[in-house]
UniProtKB/TrEMBL annotation, chain A:
<feature type="transmembrane region" description="Helical">
    <location>
        <begin position="109"/>
        <end position="127"/>
    </location>
</feature>
<dbReference type="InterPro" id="IPR027387">
    <property type="entry name" value="Cytb/b6-like_sf"/>
</dbReference>
<dbReference type="InterPro" id="IPR005797">
    <property type="entry name" value="Cyt_b/b6_N"/>
</dbReference>
<feature type="transmembrane region" description="Helical">
    <location>
        <begin position="369"/>
        <end position="388"/>
    </location>
</feature>
<feature type="transmembrane region" description="Helical">
    <location>
        <begin position="408"/>
        <end position="428"/>
    </location>
</feature>
<keyword id="KW-1133">Transmembrane helix</keyword>
<keyword id="KW-0472">Membrane</keyword>
<dbReference type="Pfam" id="PF13631">
    <property type="entry name" value="Cytochrom_B_N_2"/>
</dbReference>
<feature type="domain" description="Cytochrome b/b6 N-terminal region profile">
    <location>
        <begin position="2"/>
        <end position="236"/>
    </location>
</feature>
UniProtKB/TrEMBL annotation, chain B:
<keyword id="KW-0479">Metal-binding</keyword>
<keyword id="KW-0472">Membrane</keyword>
<keyword id="KW-1133">Transmembrane helix</keyword>
<keyword id="KW-0411">Iron-sulfur</keyword>
<keyword id="KW-0812">Transmembrane</keyword>
<keyword id="KW-0408">Iron</keyword>
<feature type="domain" description="Rieske">
    <location>
        <begin position="156"/>
        <end position="271"/>
    </location>
</feature>
<comment type="function">
    <text>Iron-sulfur subunit of the cytochrome bc1 complex, an essential component of the respiratory electron transport chain required for ATP synthesis. The bc1 complex catalyzes the oxidation of menaquinol and the reduction of cytochrome c in the respiratory chain. The bc1 complex operates through a Q-cycle mechanism that couples electron transfer to generation of the proton gradient that drives ATP synthesis.</text>
</comment>
<dbReference type="InterPro" id="IPR014349">
    <property type="entry name" value="Rieske_Fe-S_prot"/>
</dbReference>
Length: 579, 288
């Protein structure tokens, strides 16, 4: 009772000042598609929130300075040794700040999860064609956020000024220095001189806690704003068209679901942060340009770059007497090509396929064998590069000389991607022809029929690569055949509602309308010219069994109250005992 | 919620689960507070918080899954292209008769002013490299190693040839310049009879000195394999053959390690007789 009264008061007073009701009404009714892959972006968002929360805690104890200090604290092996203030404060916040190590490790794990979620989200968008018009802008923003996340991850694990990250920093410095013409000045201006400088840690710190997070926050806001404006895309299915979104309402179903995901992210990151050691800088020791850890592995999201540096042959050449150093091609050019490819992809992918049309229905990956094949080939290359960043560990485990591992990986990097891509392409073709079955249900017959079809096409002079465009288009533009009528009615309170009813489809409109016209316009937008019929209000309206939820809430509230009382009582008894 | 027998019972079970999960969450939260208040222990803190949030997650998930409608809603998705009339009105408002867009000459001059200002605003970036520091090319090409600079160990003690152990490398620095990034070098004892290429810096009783920084990405090439006379970089596995002038023989490095020309001073300590035979560390545009 009180909750509802409070909410009504708050809502009224806000509305008097901002007229929030029309906006809120629409926001509550926003429809989210029900598919797990739509949660990957939220996974990234919530990891970012965890990063900000734990990160704020860390900034209060970390000292971004390379000034010489003497560490004194409870980590005995380093007690009394001379290190930089950054390193000493990191060790101190790990051992002598209560809950400091938990926050630090949770921060690091959340960073790994953040980038992983971004990459998975990107792959989902890529393989389902969600980057197509009208969503190119959000793709560009997303790729920018990926780049920023990689950079911020790197500066984040470099600021403690430990031996492992210092080595990584040395490598990044060398890669930047290798850029023709500009490299020397670029890296000297950025770092404030020749490696290592005392400015590096404070500058990376400002970038890590202010510049990049602020940029990320702004881009996240733009990303979500555009998402709300453009509404979600969705997979094809019964009742789904290019002009509607089918799923659950933002309030209350999706709100609960997304908060549950947030809580899961917190649970997993804190479990990892508490139980799984990560980046124990006190074992690596402080940075010293004359020392290195071995083996030395970067965090996974920059490992592809390190792998490329390891695999690429020793190529240096001169242009008019000037040197193009060996890290330039695998470091700068390869990294640049990767991101250029990502940025350009929406514009490369649209040339031969209805490029000017807007797409709200996603492609199941099999509908685009060429895109799938290309994506799988590139992913295979990156998987080999990731493995290459651990070549010394592989060598140690399998007791093979590291140079042999290197040779094997070089061969794999060249030999694997194209067959993997072709295989993915063929599997997609077979799946397409098999008519909606999964990979596990395929028979030899399916494979054979596609092989024959491809051969026939190649024989007819059509390249296998463009064969995908010859298949019948997915049901993008067709009105749902099995959703055969719209029902429109006026409920007892005099508001208009509608729903789409067909064989196996019963989809209720997400909003209540004040006029019949409004309701009809929405139904027409969503379903075009389906027959529309006014009906009696259907019984058993879709809704929440309010009594049940309230009872659950009441019990939960009471339980919480008793627990609080118990905690207070315990605390007071302790205090009195101490006196 | 729809269909099935006894939906009421299922709902009761679900709300019971939600209550239980939130209860566990509260216990987890209280547990965290207790662990913290009684001295703190990283594993238990993490576990308690994880339980607290997992309880919350389970409760919310069950609530949304079993007590709230899932799916079954549709929202219309209007096309994005505006009606032509709207487009026309917007265009008129933007480029009407008094619109600044029509004053080409003024706009051109505005562009000149803003462009110049924008370029000028980049100049303070140069302050990031303090003006009293060495310029990049000079700094990269030279090091404090010079004739008469003694080789010292990490603890500052000068090195005699006999101090260089057999079978491992000794990291050395120029006296008085321990902290600089481009100075680390290593001394190693080799059998002069095995030299395929004489060391560029010469040898003193079999002791040769090379830059410690890999010519690929600047990591210290700290791993020495005595049998083959090679050093290995731990970062990207470049191999250098110390018996052949530290020539790169595997991995991504393309240039040999620069040698340090050495001799003995009057007191019998190893001393440099010049800078490295080439700029140490990774390559750069102006490297000759």
């Amino acid at each position: 009772m009180i909750t509802r009264w409070l909410l009504r008061r708050l809502g009224r007073s806000l509305d008097d000042r901002l007229r929030t009701a029309p906006v809120l009404r629409r926001a509550f009714a926003k429809v989210f598609p029900d598919h797990w892959s739509f949660m990957l972006g939220e996974l990234a968002l919530y990891s970012f929130v965890v990063l900000v929360l734990t990160g704020i805690f860390l900034t209060l104890f970390f000292e971004p300075s390379t000034a010489d200090t003497v560490y004194s604290g409870s980590y005995a092996p380093l007690d009394g040794s001379r290190t930089s203030a950054a390193y000493a404060s990191t060790v101190r916040l790990s051992f002598d700040v209560r809950a400091g190590l938990l926050m630090r490790q949770t921060h690091h794990w959340a960073a790994l999860l953040f980038v992983a979620a971004i990459v998975l989200h990107l792959l989902r968008i890529f393989f389902t064609g969600a980057f197509r018009k009208p969503r190119e802008i959000n793709w560009l923003i997303g790729v920018t956020m990926l780049a920023l996340a990689l950079f911020n991850g790197f500066t984040g694990y470099s600021v403690p000024d430990d031996l492992l990250s210092g080595t990584g920093l040395r490598i990044l410095y060398s890669v930047t220095q290798s850029i023709p013409v500009l490299g020397e000045w670029l890296v000297f201006v950025a770092a404030g001189g020749e490696f290592p400088t005392e400015e590096m840690v404070p500058r990376m710190f400002v970038s890590h806690v202010l510049l990049v997070p602020a940029a990320l926050a702004a881009l996240i806001a733009a990303h979500l704003g555009i998402l709300v404006r453009q509404k979600h895309s969705q997979f094809p299915g019964p009742g789904r068209t290019e002009n509607n979104v089918v799923g659950s309402l933002f309030w209350p179903s999706y709100t609960m679901r997304t908060l549950a995901l947030f809580a899961w992210v917190l649970a997993v990151t804190f479990a990892l942060g508490g139980l799984a050691q990560i980046n124990p800088v006190w074992i690596y020791g402080p940075f010293d340009p004359a020392q290195a850890t071995s083996p030395a592995q970067p965090d996974w999201y920059v490992a592809w770059g390190d792998g490329a540096l390891r695999l690429f042959p020793a190529v240096e050449f001169r242009i008019f007497g000037h040197l193009v150093a060996s890290p330039f091609l695998p470091g700068v050019v390869f990294g640049g090509l990767t991101f250029a490819g990502l940025y350009l992809w929406p514009f490369l992918d649209r040339r031969h396929r209805r490029g000017q049309l807007s797409h709200q229905l996603l492609d199941p990956p099999r509908e685009h064998p060429a895109r799938l094949g290309f994506g799988v080939a590139v992913l295979t290359l990156f998987a080999v590069l990731l493995a290459a960043a651990a070549d010394d560990i592989v060598a140690k485990i399998f007791r093979i000389p590291v140079l042999d591992v290197l040779s094997i990986l070089r061969v794999l990097a060249l030999a694997l991607p194209i067959p993997a891509g072709v295989l993915a392409y063929l599997v997609a073709r077979v799946l397409q022809a098999s008519g909606g079955r999964g990979v596990g249900d395929l028979t030899r017959q399916d494979v054979r029929s596609v092989r024959r079809a491809v051969r026939a096409r190649v024989g007819a002079g059509v390249g296998a690569v463009t064969a995908g465009s010859g298949t019948p288009p997915p049901q993008d533009w067709a009105a749902p055949a099995d959703a055969d009528r719209i029902e429109l009615w006026r409920d007892r309170a005099g508001r208009w509602r509608w729903r789409c009813r067909g064989a196996g489809v019963l989809l209720t409109a997400n909003q209540l309308y004040l006029s019949r016209d409004e309701a009809e316009r929405a139904a027409r937008t969503a379903y075009g010219d389906l027959p529309l019929r006014e009906v009696e209000p259907p019984g058993g309206a879709v809704g929440v069994p309010a009594a049940m939820v309230e009872r659950a809430g009441r019990v939960a509230g009471r339980t919480g109250g008793y627990l609080t009382l118990a905690a207070v009582a315990y605390w007071r008894s302790r205090r009195s005992r101490r006196r | 919620m729809t269909g099935g027998d006894g939906p009421g019972r299922r709902e009761r079970a679900a709300s019971g689960l939600v209550v239980g999960a939130f209860g566990v969450s509260a216990l987890g939260g209280a547990g965290f507070a207790t662990v913290y208040a009684t001295g703190g222990q990283t594993q238990l803190e993490g576990l308690a918080l994880a339980v607290a949030f997992a309880g919350l997650a389970v409760g919310l998930a069950v609530w949304s899954r079993h007590l709230l409608p899932n799916g079954g809603y549709v929202e219309e998705h209007e096309p994005f292209d505006s009606p032509p009339a709207d487009l026309r009105l917007a265009a008129e408002a933007l480029a009407g008769p008094e619109s600044p867009v029509r004053r080409r000459g003024l706009l051109a001059m505005l562009a000149v002013a803003l462009g110049t200002l924008g370029g000028a605003a980049l100049f303070p970036l140069r302050s990031l490299l303090p003006f009293d520091r060495e310029r990049p090319v000079h700094a990269l090409r030279t090091t404090p190693w010079a004739a008469g600079v003694r080789l010292v160990r990490a603890d500052g003690v000068p090195v005699r040839p006999t101090d260089v152990p057999d079978g491992t490398v000794l990291t050395v620095f120029p006296e008085g310049h321990r902290g600089r990034g481009d100075v680390p070098a290593f001394a190693v004892r080799l059998d002069p009879a095995r030299f395929v290429v004489p060391p560029p810096g010469g040898n003193v009783a079999g002791v040769v000195v090379y830059s410690l920084l890999c010519t690929h990405a600047g990591c210290p090439v700290a791993l020495y394999l005595k049998e083959t006379g090679r050093v290995l970089c731990p970062c990207h596995q470049s191999n250098f053959d110390l018996l052949a002038g530290a020539r790169p023989i595997a991995g991504p490095a393309a240039r040999p390690l620069p040698g340090l020309p050495i001799s003995l001073d009057a007191d019998g300590f190893l001393t440099a007789i010049g800078d490295f035979t080439a700029p140490p560390g990774p390559g750069f545009w102006s490297l000759k």
